[in-house]
TrEMBL record:
PROSITE patterns according to UniProt: FAD_PCMH
Keywords: FAD, Flavoprotein, Oxidoreductase
PANTHER family membership: XANTHINE DEHYDROGENASE SUBUNIT C-RELATED
Chain ranges of the FAD-binding PCMH-type domain: 1-223
Source superkingdom: Bacteria
Pfam families: CO_deh_flav_C, FAD_binding_5
Molecular function per GO: FAD binding; oxidoreductase activity
Name recorded for this polypeptide: Xanthine dehydrogenase YagS FAD-binding subunit
The species this protein was found in: Asanoa ishikariensis
Amino acid sequence: MRAFRYARATDPGAAAALVTSQPDAVYLGGGTNLVDLMKLGVLRPGLVVDVSRLPYDRIEHLPDGGVLIGGAARNRRVAHDEGIRRRYPALARALLSGASGQIRSQATVAGNLLQRTRCPYFQNTATPCNKRDPGSGCSAIPGAHRDLGVIGTSEHCVATHPSDLAVALAAYDAVVEVRRPDGAEVLVPIGDLHRLPGDTPWIETVLEPGDLVTGVQLPPPPDGAVATYRKVRDRWSFAFATVSVAAVLSTDQVRLALGGVAPKPWRLTATERMLAGTDPSDDDVRAATRAAFTDARPLPENAFKIELAADLVAAVLRDLRTAGAVR
């Protein structure tokens, strides 16, 4: 057993004061990722600050058509909210594909966004991992890397971010609300929240010590838009994405984000530009998707992900165009 202190925060200021009071303190939301890593010995916090009961669990549908989702909102509640299912279907589908019902009932939105990688070498304390032990090396590059990243990676880390929710939020151009320890409120576009590994893979987000994710803002979806989230995985039951795509299609634009291919949700901006205002064939979509991987660094066992992503995007857009025509 590894001893640690537990504190339940009564307000945001108290939470920040507690978590900044010692360098090995962490926030606790649902605990579905943190507790696992503590059991494995990957994380050994001296103080765990429970923020799950702070007043950030609302789901508020706004007059302008957008929605505000609190950081402490449970994933199950978000996935089954009628307004989100109707107006942000890719978000609901992403959450429903992300985990078992029991985990969705416990996990929070903020915790899901900030969960750590599921790379097996990160979770195995007997192997070198730059993300866990800076400067020790990356075991995945010469090892088992089939499920890891092909783009946005570096020679120091090829891990992927596991969140399905984050991929859907990227396609919806979400903005993350962050409370600083001094009480200041800042807004971070979802595409800027997670950092690429570069030379410092252990620094995973732009958040500063004591920052608390209090909510996520989603702008109104485009008029007449159709959207979905599709996930390719090795088994139908609870599994992380080999490749996933969130797509939002409207009359004059398409938004695309991929999961399972990079250390963060990977927005296909080049593909979006190539497809905007066109009526592309499947082959056109595949070519436009491949173009987004110009700077990819695939490894021998995961190079197939690029072609899989191209096929997946083509299939999803074909189905959305059909759905839009039926509507």
